[in-house]
């Protein structure tokens, strides 16, 4: 037990006047306040940077985990139902961090070839090609006594191919260098006006790249009057390279700008971009799933199929269409020439319609319903006509042929 006097003195000391403090302590707190605010802002920036880096790593790990899970569990006969996404509310924004995951899978054509009906159609086309080749050989040997190989149409279609390849080289080099160098200029850390100059220079490179791809192939194709196949090569490569460069910038620029504050330059590797320009995809990634080894037999098979399609089209057009339409403008119009042109153009037109026309689905649907309504109208009209004929012109005797033959053909009542 403490004495009462001591307890009272301690209470008075606590509740009494405050002790005197040194005069310099207030100034120290005043000077520390701006430093504390600055430090807080720095820590907030570090926190945001760490969260962004953690989100990138988490997305990458989840993509890899999904790909490994798909690889370890092959698809069964019945696919799993995909969960329906919940509807977005007005305040909820869609997530822009989702990225497409590439997995090892068969192409759509390979999957179609596993269907028996599609393989039957494929074999029918091969059989038709063999029949055409045999008939052509027989006709050539009977008429000419020798084998006549005419590749004039193929040579004409791919005429001036060296000029098309020479034009393709600067297009490819512009796509290879301009977007990648522009991205490296944007990836450098900000340093006053120098970064602004680099940003403008990157935009100039992209503008020059777009000008080369848009102007050069069209100018060469129009000025030199390239044949159809050579012109298609330039136009298709023009569109492909534009889409490739756009996809590369769209996928790589956000990550490059987020990582700009680090030391050095962070940009995708040049080898990955070069591989992306040749791989059959329009979505850029640093790595893609690949087979352990190159299947050269698969490559040779697809190359042979592509070459066979070119020869098939050249053979049909050269044997059926070109001989008929070559001299049509020089001959007077006649019913014979019209019927021959229609019959010879039926097979190429049907082949082009079924293989190349992308509107075959809606066209077949509209054609089916149109013919259905026309058939119903014709059926009602013929039924009424036949009923009237059998009512006013009854058969003298009932025979099997009389039942099959329309009575309206011989009734004149």
From TrEMBL:
> Which keywords does the record carry?
Acyltransferase, Endoplasmic reticulum, Membrane, Transferase, Transmembrane, Transmembrane helix
Protein name, UniProt field: O-acyltransferase
**Cellular localisation:** Endoplasmic reticulum membrane
| Regions crossing the membrane | 121-142, 154-178, 199-220, 264-283, 303-325, 366-384
Topology versus the membrane: Multi-pass membrane protein
What is a biological process (GO) this protein takes part in? Answer: cholesterol metabolic process
- Region (Disordered) location: 1-33, 73-93
Q: Basic and acidic residues bias located where?
A: 11-33
Q: Report which superkingdom the organism of origin falls in.
A: Eukaryota
Q: Does the keyword Oxidoreductase apply?
A: no
Q: Where is the composition biased (Pro residues)?
A: 77-86
Q: Which is an annotated GO molecular function term of this record?
A: fatty-acyl-CoA binding
**Keyword Cytoplasm among record annotations:** no
User: What does the similarity note say?
Assistant: Belongs to the membrane-bound acyltransferase family. Sterol o-acyltransferase subfamily.
Can you cite an annotated GO cellular component? endoplasmic reticulum membrane
Organism field: Marmota monax (Woodchuck)
Q: Which InterPro entries match?
A: MBOAT_fam (IPR004299), Oat_ACAT_DAG_ARE (IPR014371)
């Amino acid at each position: 037990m403490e004495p009462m006097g001591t307890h009272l003195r301690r209470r008075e000391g606590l509740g009494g006047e405050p002790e005197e403090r040194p005069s310099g302590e207030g100034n120290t707190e005043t000077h520390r306040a701006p430093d504390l605010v600055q430090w807080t802002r720095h820590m907030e920036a570090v926190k945001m940077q760490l969260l962004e880096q953690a989100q990138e790593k988490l997305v990458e790990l989840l993509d890899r985990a999904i790909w490994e899970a798909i690889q370890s569990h092959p698809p069964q006969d019945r696919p799993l139902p995909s969960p329906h996404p919940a509807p977005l509310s007005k305040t909820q924004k869609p997530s822009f961090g989702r990225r497409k995951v590439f997995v090892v899978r068969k192409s759509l054509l390979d999957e179609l070839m596993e269907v028996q009906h599609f393989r039957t159609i494929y074999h029918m086309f091969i059989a038709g090609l063999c029949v055409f080749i045999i008939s052509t050989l027989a006709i050539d040997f009977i008429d000419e006594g020798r084998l006549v190989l005419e590749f004039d149409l193929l040579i004409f279609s791919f005429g001036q191919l060296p000029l098309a390849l020479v034009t393709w080289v600067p297009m490819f080099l512009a796509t290879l260098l301009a977007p990648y160098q522009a991205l490296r200029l944007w990836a450098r850390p900000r340093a006053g006006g120098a970064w602004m100059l680099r940003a403008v220079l990157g935009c100039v490179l992209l503008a020059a790249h777009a000008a080369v791809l848009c102007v050069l192939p069209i100018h060469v194709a129009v000025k030199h009057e390239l044949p159809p196949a050579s012109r298609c090569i330039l136009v298709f490569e023009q569109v492909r390279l534009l889409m490739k460069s756009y996809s590369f910038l769209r996928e790589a620029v956000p990550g490059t700008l987020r990582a700009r504050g680090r030391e050095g330059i962070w940009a995708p590797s040049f080898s990955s971009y070069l591989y992306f320009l040749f791989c059959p995809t329009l979505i850029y990634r640093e790595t893609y799933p690949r087979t352990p080894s190159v299947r050269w037999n698969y490559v040779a098979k697809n190359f042979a199929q592509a070459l066979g399609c070119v020869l098939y089209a050249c053979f049909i057009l050269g044997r059926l269409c070109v001989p008929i339409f070559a001299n049509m403008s020089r001959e007077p119009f006649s019913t014979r020439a019209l019927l021959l042109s229609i019959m010879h153009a039926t097979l190429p037109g049907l082949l082009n319609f079924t293989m190349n026309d992308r509107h075959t689905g809606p066209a077949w649907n509209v054609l089916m319903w149109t013919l259905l309504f026309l058939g119903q109208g014709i059926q009602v009209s013929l039924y009424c006509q036949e009923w009237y004929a059998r009512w006013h012109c009854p058969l003298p005797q009932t025979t099997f042929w009389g039942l099959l033959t329309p009575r309206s053909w011989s009734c004149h009542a």
